[in-house]
Design a protein that fits this description.
CATH topology of the largest domain in chain B: DNA polymerase, domain 1
Number of helices of chain B: 6
CATH superfamily of the largest domain in chain A: Aldehyde oxidase/xanthine dehydrogenase, molybdopterin binding domain
Helix content of chain B: 25-40%
Largest interface: A-B, 64 and 58 residues
Radius of gyration of chain B: 15 Å
Largest sheet of chain A: 7 strands, mixed
Distance between the termini of chain B: 48 Å
Shape of chain A: globular
Order of helices and strands of chain B: EEHEEEHHHHH
Structural class of chain A: alpha+beta
Number of domains of chain A: 3
Radius of gyration of chain A: 27 Å
Oligomer: heterodimer
Distance between the termini of chain A: 66 Å
CATH topology of the largest domain in chain A: Aldehyde Oxidoreductase, domain 4
Number of helices of chain A: 17
Number of domains of chain B: 2
Strand order of the largest sheet of chain A: 13-14-11-22-19-20-21
Number of strands of chain B: 5
Strand order of the largest sheet of chain B: 2-1-5-3-4
CATH architecture of the largest domain in chain B: Orthogonal Bundle
CATH class of the largest domain in chain A: Alpha Beta
Shape of chain B: globular
CATH superfamily of the largest domain in chain B: [2Fe-2S]-binding domain
Strand content of chain B: 5-15%
Largest sheet of chain B: 5 strands, mixed
Helix content of chain A: 25-40%
Strand content of chain A: 15-25%
């Protein structure tokens, strides 16, 4: 079909037979409409001739809710019920389906799915609405201003018809340049507590299709035998024992020699054949350090001059102020490596079509990553590579590696075959725990001086750990003046008004492959900032809530006020200060990914015989809560993720090899670990900000603070179970 | 070797070696993908199916041991009124997030309610302990079981 550009710069679909209305954005971001799916642009809204509206969702669904949230935006603006809209995942196209906060890169991360889609998807819905209304107005010979769409029914005076009647005519109209968005007072679905997830039923009855559930005709299952330590090189193998396994096909050293691919007819045969395979490894370049050595390097860095003076502080003056203070509080913290361990082990399936195109079936968190990598590996132009995004069984950051690690691994396992059979790469849980990417280990050393009135006169804060961003393609945009912001986020940008702050950072040498892990740097900075606020308040003889509020006292600073309000709401809802005998409360509040979350953790018991987590009360300000119950669920999940890991999880290395192997020694949070979670959302008119991650940072320090109040034990090294605190 | 399985009310003949976990026969041979692989060591519960009405971890249940059993998977558990009640409660409360563990959660919840129609919170926590959810939907799993109990009582 031909595409005409109108004088206002918007695309209009030329006459086409299909009564299909597509509304979306052109590569330049302008809204566009066309009358067929074969248009040159990729849309956000598709309406079939029968009136079925489909939202094209550009973010993958790992449980955080975009398969509900983005359709909500479109349904709201068109005027539909949630039952009248379906969803499907967008193809890979970084020009059309990019994350608006990431540049020309399609991906989900940093809790941005709703924040970057908020206006874009509403505009797409509003444009479709105006075109349907204009078509109805023309058909009925009435003024468009008097036409409405509610619950999928177009109305004008005494005339009414379902939208299906106008899809064909609307598809011939020009997309409006600036469709009118609904005023928040008109919202029926946004902010509506009764809106349910679109993916609940299929996930409760086994119909949901994850990448792990892909079974292509004639596919092989591939598993990779990897070295015990990162950096080992495969030089050859002996598969004589593997040949005894029924269903074993063959094995091949990967082109990069990072491992040996074992191919089998099914998953069980692949597991057995890989177990039986003997590989000749060259381990001369492999990592050989123990995690104790890595920890020692980090702790030594905390005592040395920091590599970067992050906030350009007058360090000598801050240090002198602390030296001269009435009281000095000094604490050193250590955070171990952590695995993400999403419930669905990593996997993806790759096939070559008869036309020579490559198709990847993947729970694709960042499709542009594998899409770019595959252009090199397969020497194909981008349009010959297709990514089918499946539901993802969790991620917590793991499915978005800067080097597209597992998708590249699958491609390497595929290119060494004759490509006649699709290859499904499957990781086991042991692969996930032992061969993965980790939240880097970090150390902090904080020295705070208080004057005689209990006021902070200096806060000297040293951070040391392995940078997540350096050495990746994101370095150019995310590292400034040598500082990887993700190592110090949550301190460098804390809304707290802290006098005499000096923040130093040292990057420690590469210890293993590291990666963002739900809430990234906030996983450790939130813990340090919020346990220190409690410790310093205690030293000052002040209430921890009042002490925090006194550092959020600037009424003209919206950032401080939002943080203060969320803290106050958590205090109110938790019944702060009114705990039954034998229990204690701890509090923490933290801003991350544009949102503010405060939590009160209530505990009983004692560290020696077992702490019981009785209740977590959470208040969150994430701007407009598009789907309030999804926001609540994300807080519940973020709290569980944060608390579960600080309770008892760590990844340790011996001679470079990971000591843990599976859930029995990387124990997930269990149902009995947190007795109750109660979430409250601050009403807001601000644009939506993150919810996937902001629930995590305050959870662990609120628990630590509760344990301190209950027992006096201050846990500064994690996990808690390895540092004097047991749980029941 | 050829084995006969009674699964979801139907008889299937499958070709599998002794020692093959039931999980992989269900997923790879019968192509019923609702039963999930999570850990392979009976530590997460994602692979839970019913064997004569009792929840078992199919990753540690061997094919030669189940020839005479009635096997039920997530695809058919809703045919039973307890399964239907649990699935209804799961939707009402939007229990799921990523959803990958939820087939196993539902199968275990049905197992619990089959033997204890009105479980206490403590009984729920104890029975469901082996079903891990990395999204930490536990609050809602607990509430979902209580809601299913109400539905069944009504």
């Amino acid at each position: 079909m031909t595409i005409n550009t109108s004088r206002r710069g918007f695309l209009k679909g030329a006459a086409a037979s299909g009564a299909v209305l597509l509304v979306g954005a052109r590569p330049d971001g302008a809204l566009a409409a066309a009358s067929s799916e074969t248009a040159q642009f990729n849309p956000f809204v598709k309406i079939d001739a029968d009136g079925t509206v489909t939202a094209i969702v550009k973010h993958f669904e790992k449980g955080q809710g975009p398969a509900t949230g983005l359709p909500t935006l479109i349904a709201e603006e068109i005027g539909l019920t949630m039952d009248q809209i379906e969803y499907e995942f967008a193809p890979s196209n970084p020009q059309v389906y990019n994350n608006l906060l990431f540049g020309p890169f399609q991906g989900t991360g940093g809790s941005t799915a709703m924040a970057n889609s908020w206006l874009q998807y509403r505009q797409a819905g509003a444009a479709a609405r105006e075109m349907l209304i204009n078509a109805a107005a023309q058909s009925w010979g009435v003024d468009a201003a008097g036409v409405t769409i509610e619950e999928g029914i177009v109305k004008a005076g005494d005339k009414s018809a379902p939208i299906a009647e106008f899809v064909a005519a609307a598809s011939q109209l020009e997309a409006p340049a600036e469709p009118r968005l609904k005023d928040p007072s008109e919202f029926r679905l946004i902010g509506n507590e009764t809106v349910r997830r679109k993916d609940s039923a299929i996930k409760g009855n086994g119909q949901a299709m994850y990448a792990m559930d892909v079974h292509l005709p004639n596919q092989m299952v591939a598993m990779i035998k990897r070295p015990e330590s990162k950096g080992g090189v495969a030089n050859g193998f002996d598969d004589s024992a593997s040949k005894e396994v029924k269903g074993y096909i063959s094995a091949a050293v990967l082109p990069n020699q990072a491992g040996v691919a074992v191919y089998a007819e099914n998953t069980w045969a692949a597991i057995q054949a890989r177990d039986a395979l003997e590989v000749e490894w060259d381990m001369s370049g492999a990592e050989t350090r123990d995690s104790d050595q890595i920890k020692a390097e980090i702790m030594a860095a905390l005592d040395a001059e920091p590599e970067y003076n992050v906030n350009k502080a007058d360090v000598a003056a801050v240090s002198a102020a602390i030296d001269g203070a009435d009281k000095v509080i000094e604490k050193t913290f250590y955070f171990p490596l952590l695995a993400h361990a999403p419930m669905e082990p990593l996997n993806c399936t790759i096939e070559q079509t008869a036309e020579g195109d490559i198709v990847l079936h993947d729970g694709a968190q960042a499709p542009t990553g594998p899409h770019m990598a595959y252009q090199q590996i397969f020497q194909l132009p981008p349009e010959k590579i297709h990514i089918k995004t499946m539901l993802a069984g969790g991620s917590f950051g793991r499915r978005a590696t800067p080097d597209a690690d597992y998708q590249v691994e699958a491609a390497l396992a595929f290119v060494v075959t004759d490509r006649s059979r699709p290859v499904k790469l499957v990781w086991t849980r042991e692969d996930d725990i032992r061969s993965g990417y980790y939240r880097p280990a970090f150390g902090h050393k904080v020295r705070v001086g208080l004057d005689a009135d209990g006021k902070i006169v200096g806060w000297q804060h040293q951070v040391a750990g392995q940078s997540v961003i350096k050495g990746t393609p994101f370095e150019a945009v995310a590292v400034h003046d040598g500082v990887d912001h993700s190592s110090v986020e949550g301190i460098a940008d804390s809304p707290y008004d802290i006098p005499g702050m000096a923040l130093g950072l040292t990057d420690t040498p590469k210890a293993t492959t590291v990666l963002w892990w739900r809430s990234v740097g906030h996983t450790h900075t939130g813990y340090v900032m919020e346990t220190m606020m409690d410790t310093v308040a205690e030293a000052a003889g002040r209430d921890p809530v009042e002490f925090r509020l006194s550092h959020l006292a600037n009424t003209s600073n919206a950032d401080q006020q939002r943080k203060a309000e969320v803290l106050k709401l958590a205090v109110e809802k938790a019944g702060w200060g009114n705990v039954p005998a034998g229990r204690a409360q701890g509090i923490a509040v933290h801003k991350s990914f544009g949102s503010y979350a405060a939590q009160v953790v209530e505990v009983s018991g004692d560290p020696e015989n077992g702490i019981k987590i009785e209740k977590v009360t959470c208040a969150v300000d994430c701007g407009i809560a598009v789907n309030p119950d999804v926001v609540r669920a994300q807080m519940e999940g973020g709290i569980g993720y944060g608390i579960g890991h600080v309770m008892r999880d760590q990844i340790t290395l011996t001679q470079g090899a990971v000591d843990q192997y599976n859930f029995p020694d990387y124990e997930p949070l269990r149902i009995g670990d947190i007795a109750d979670i109660d979430v409250h959302i601050v009403p807001s008119a601000e644009a939506p900000t993150g919810v996937g991650e902001p629930g995590t940072p305050p959870s662990a320090p609120a628990l630590a603070n509760a344990i301190r109040v209950l027992s006096g034990v201050k846990v500064t090294s994690l996990p808690m179970s390895e540092n004097g605190v047991s749980f029941i | 070797m050829a084995l006969t399985l009674k699964l979801n009310g139907e008889t299937h003949t499958v070709d599998a070696e002794p020692g093959t976990p039931l999980l992989w026969v269900i997923r790879d041979e019968l192509k019923l993908t609702g039963t999930k692989f999570g850990c392979g060591v009976a530590s997460c519960g994602a692979c839970t199916v019913h064997l004569n009405g009792e929840p078992v971890r199919s990753c540690q249940t061997y094919i030669e041991d189940v020839e005479d059993a009635e096997i039920t998977t997530i695809e058919a558990v809703g045919d039973d009124k307890i399964g239907a009640a649990v699935q209804q409660a799961w939707v009402e409360l939007d229990v799921v997030q990523c959803g990958y563990c939820q087939s196993g959660q539902v199968m275990s919840a049905v197992g619990l309610l089959s033997e204890n129609p009105k479980p206490s919170v403590e009984e729920i926590d104890e029975y469901m302990h082996g079903n891990a959810c990395r999204c930490a939907t536990y609050q809602r799993i607990r509430a979902g079981i209580q809601r299913a109990s109400e539905i069944l009582e009504a």
